[in-house]
Amino acid sequence: MDYVDSLLDLVGNTPLVRLRSVTAGLAPTVLAKVEYFNPGGSVKDRIATRMIDTAERTGLLKPGGTIVEPTSGNTGVGLALVAQQRGYQCVFVVPDKVSTDKINTLRAYGAEVVVCPTAVAPEDPRSYYQTSDRLVRETPGAWKPDQYSNPDNPRSHYETTGPELWRQTDGRITHFVCGMGTGGTISGVGRYLKEVSDGAVRIIGADPEGSVYSGGTGRPYLVEGVGEDFWPSTYDPDIADEVLAISDADSFSMTRRLAREEGLLVGGSCGMAVVGALRTAEKAAAEDVIVVLLPDSGRGYLSKIFNDEWMADYGFISASTAATVGEVLAAKSGPTPEFVHMHPNETVREAIDVIREYGVSQMPVVRAEPPVMAAEIVGSVGERDLLDKLFAGTASLADRVEQHMAAPLPIIGSGESVAQAVHELEHAGALVVLVDGRPRGVITRQDLLGYLAG
User: Fold this and answer.
1) pLDDT tens digits, 204-216
2) Which of 33, 44, 194, 304 is catalytic?
3) Cα–Cα distance, 115 to 400 (Å, whole number)
4) What is the signed CA dihedral for 272, 208, 268, 368, rounded to 10 degrees?
5) Which letter, b or e, does each residue of 242-276 get, where b requires 16 or more Cβ atoms within 10 Å of its Cβ?
6) Is 44 labeled as catalytic in the residue annotation?
7) Nearest-5° angle of CA 351, CA 356, CA 362?
8) What three-state secondary structure class fits 405?
9) CA-CA distance, 275 to 245, in Å (whole number)?
10) Binning pLDDT at 50, 70 and 90, where does residue 375 land?
């Protein structure tokens, strides 16, 4: 009889699949390492077993203990699989940008899930890093694997993923491309491939725009499970030969193409990695072999990347063949800048000056300079509200804007219909328009009337 004793025996030895459609016109061979063939559905199954093995061996995790980990979902599933086999409880802390599908998957494995805000600094007590530390302190018998600093993270890839790639390509691999989250995959695989090839294999990281790996500050982005706002100790900066910044729009577009053209239902970070692989292939020789690692399946993204309504809400696609919000925004004319805004530390006087200069009635308040992400909008200020407060004496011209700002304006995707905008403006004075997931402008009832009249 042919069987295994446990699902854990099925971790690793995932297949390579040649990409054919999305690589049209490119000479090199591009192979995808499809990690959703792991029993938990992602590359993170590899690190879960090794981290728990070491914790048991060193006495950090004792029988009946609780595993507490900040995770965007996949590491949690891997840890939950091992925990089921060995009698541990699990508590996972996730950022609020993680899809409902992923959260429900973790709960289906019997884990408790705690959701924390994304748009806060790592040192903020509400962040999912700090929350997980607090839960470890408060939970008897708790152990935190901490995939961001645990050396078994990159070691698992050095010992398994790297050797698999070398064997599967018969040593012909010339480039390795993968996304960068904890940095464990690129560091472990990259170190092995460089050693076994005497430095001949080039290691390329794919990173969301805004992440620190590609030169950003950690500003918010929508692709999940990759990129960081700090430097994990599991990342070895000497391994990667190049790091490519990939936009949310390119990542999501490629993710949908992989499902429709290659039959690969994978996550957004996989689309991001493939974009990086194709950019690499454009500069590579015909005889080169480029391997791109696809870390997970698309099962956790059905309500987001593969949902037309969600994609339209963020301005990635058009949801209607009728007139769209993007057309209304493009029709606005005059000297008004693309995205009139204020910062929390600017004064009420400065806000009024901007309102008068550009003839706007409401403005978003943002924490950064454009181009900003939706999560960086922290509030709004309006002409009428400021006037009422100044007249009543509850505000002064020298006050900071953050003292008097209202809730953020509602958002609407540029691909949404004008009819949807009319409906939304029944309950709001203005809407922030998102194009490819980023705020691009503000529209009001007056803008809609001007567009329809024109």
Assistant:
1) 999 999 899 998 8
2) 44
3) 31
4) -150
5) ebbbbbbbbbbbbbbbbeeebebbbbbbbbbbbbb
6) yes
7) 60
8) coil
9) 10
10) confident
